[in-house]
Amino acid sequence: QAGLTQPPSVSKDLGQTATLTCTGNSNNVGDEGAIWLQQYQGHPPKLLSHRSNYRPSGISDRFSASRSGNTASLTITGLQPEDEADYYCSAWDNTLKAWLFGGGTKLTVL
Amino acid sequence: QMQLVQSGAEVKPPGASVKLSCKTSGYTFTHFYIHWVRQAPGRGLEWIGILHSDNGNTIYAQPFQGRVTVTRDTSTSTAYLELSGLRFEDTAMYFCTREAGGFDIWGQGTLVTVAS
Predict the structure, then answer these.
(1) Is B106 in contact with A46 (Cβ distance < 8 A)?
(2) Residue A13 burial (CB count, 10 A)
(3) Which residue of B has its CA nearest to A36?
(4) How far apart are CA B18 and CA A58, in angstroms?
(5) Mind telling me how many Å the CA of A23 is from chain B's nearest CA?
(6) Which of A22, A104, B18, B92 might form a disulfide with B40, Cβ 3.0–4.6 angstroms?
(7) Positions of E strands within chain A
(8) Nearest CB neighbour to B44, from listed A47, A52, A103
(9) What is the per-residue pLDDT for A1?
């Protein structure tokens, strides 16, 4: 099944802003929106943003999600060392009747 | 607190079946869908399927159709994943997760190793 497209890696300096992207189509991201997950190696993922771009309780306001057309974005401001992780987007596809994942973006904080 | 606790690691030979459990607590089991997701070593997340916890209906990802069965026991608030015809490439960490506007609670994962 076709997935969502994420850049494999992004590197940014400490304190800077990183914007991670997730591109789908009108049947998934463009229709239902996307969720964002953060994963540290050896741990389960953690939800950063709901489909409505709502941030769950306990998630820092340095994380914000948005969508423009078929592309969802996760913006992380004031990058900290602990932000270094893998980030995944996911969306429900109304045509495939399946949840899709992006391949993940490895964020490196320099 | 709300949590999903998964069963322990499994080692199976090729061709065998494995059944994993995901015991939920701290919330009403039938009010939220449960998903199964896997992650092969060093790879990304892969969606396996969804369980409608209220009525037991399921939807499976196309690559798993015919090999996967997801069930539930509402008396114990537990979801199950059974995968048959195991292949070496099924070696992965298998997660269950609750859907509440997103995948908001995750189990700790069950490592399934397919080895001869």
Answers:
(1) yes
(2) 10
(3) B102
(4) 36
(5) 16
(6) B92
(7) 9-12, 18-23, 35-39, 46-49, 63-68, 71-76, 85-93, 98-101, 105-109
(8) A103
(9) 52
* Binding-face residues of B in 48-67 toward A, CB within 8 A: 50, 59, 61-63
- Residues of chain A in contact with residue B63, where contact means CB-CB under 8 angstroms, are 1
Tokens of A103: 């391949």
Of the candidates B89, B88, B80, B100, the one whose C-alpha atom is nearest the C-alpha of residue B36 is: B80
What is the tens place of the pLDDT at every residue in A65-108? 999 999 999 999 999 999 999 999 999 999 999 999 999 999 99
Asked if the Cβ–Cβ distance from A90 to B45 is below 8 Å, we say yes
Structure tokens at B105: 């609670």
Chain A residue numbers touching B106 (CB-CB < 8 A): 44-46
Which residues of chain B fall below pLDDT 70?
none
Cα distance between residue B108 and residue B111, in whole Å: 10
Angle at B94 between CA B89 and CA A22, to 5 degrees: 85
- CB neighbour burial string for A40-50, b if at least 16 within 10 angstroms, e if fewer: eeeebbbbbbb
Nearest alpha-carbon partner for A21 in A68, A67, A72, A62: A72
User: What is the per-residue pLDDT across B67-91, written as a single tens digit (0 to 9) for each?
Assistant: 999 999 999 999 999 999 999 999 9
